Amino acid sequence: MRLPLLPVLILALLATTAQVRSETVVLSTGERLSAESVAIEGTTVVIRHKVLGTLKVPIEDIRSIDGRAVAISVKDDSAAGSAASPAVAKKEDSGSGKNDTKEPAGSTSDSGWKGSFTLSGSLNEGTSRNTSLYTQLKYGRDNARETTSLATYYRFASSGGETTQSWFNIKGNQLWKIQDSPWGIFADTEFDWSEFNAWEQRFAAHAGGQYRLLSLSRTTNPDLWVKTLTLDGRVGAGPRKEFAGRETDLVAEGELGGILNMTFAGDQTIEANASYYPVLFSYNDYRFEANLNWKMPLHLKGMDGLALALGIKYQYQLKVSPENKNYDLLGTLGVTYDF
Length: 339
Fold this sequence. Notes:
The protein is mostly beta strands. It has one helix spanning 5-20, and strands spanning 23-27, 32-35, 37-41, 44-49, 53-58, 62-65, 68-75, 85-91, 114-126, 130-142, 146-159, 162-177, 183-194, 201-217, 228-242, 251-264, 268-278, 286-297, 306-317, 327-338. The chain has two domains: 19-91, no CATH class; 114-338, monomeric porin ompg (Porin), CATH 2.40.160.
C-alpha cells in the first residue's frame, strides 16, 4: 500500500528536526546553554555543546532541561537485593499553558533557609567618630522561585561612661524570579533608629524590577578565575519617611542599584551592592548607600561555618541637619558563623 506523499514528507521533516534540534539547559546560576545533546548518567548530566565541547555537570547544578525541572529521587531496589541508588525524575509541564515553577535539584520551596551571626569591631567616621561593637543577624533562602533575606544589625560605642554610638537597623528583601528569564520583581523595606543622627528614625520601602546582567560559572568557563559571579541591576521606587531632622514629610524616592555576588578560591565570597535614591519630583535631593562584605572560611576542625569577615558600609545624604555630616563610613572586622 502506498502512503500519501504529504504525511510521509511531514514525518520525515519531523524526524530530521528531532535529530538536529538543540536542547536548552538552564544552570542553577541562571545561565542558559543550547546543547546539541543532553544525557543523564546517575548524578551527572553530560552536555554536548557546539563550542564548549563535552561538559559534565553535577545534577544539583542543573535547574531545568528543555523547560522541565530536574530533581533527584531515590529508587528503592531492595527487592532486587541491591542498595538504594540515585535516580532522576523530571517534572513535566502541567499542560495548562502556564510555565511550572522550576526547583533546583534536591530542594523544595519551603527549604533552604540559612542563617549567619556576625560579631565584629568597627571603626566609624562621619556623623559619629568612634570605635564600636558591631553585631549582625541574617537569615535567608535562595531557590528557583524566590530569594528572601532578613537582616538586622546593631552598632554600639561608649566613651567615658557615655554612649557615643547607638544605631539599630532591620531590613527585608524579597525577589520573585520569573521562570526561565533574567527578570525578577523585588520589594525591600528598611527601618533605621540612630540616636546620633538628626533624623532619629527612618523608614523606607521600594519595589520594582531586577535584571540579571551577568552570570558566569567555572562549570561553563573553565578558564574563569572565580567559581561563580553574578551581577544584577534593579530599578524601583517607594516611600521614605524621616521622623525628625530637616525633612519629616513623606517623600517618594527612586532606587537605582546593582548587586554583585562572587565566589572564588577556598569558597571565599564577596557580596557588594550600591544604590542611588533620588527624591522624585524634587531633583535636588538624594541619598546613596554602598556595602561590601568579604567572607573567608577558616576551615577549623569541628567548627564548620566559622569565617573571617570584613565589611565596609558607606552612606551619603545630600541634605542633612547642620549638626550632622553628609556621610557615615563604617569598617568592620570580625568573625561570622553560618548555621
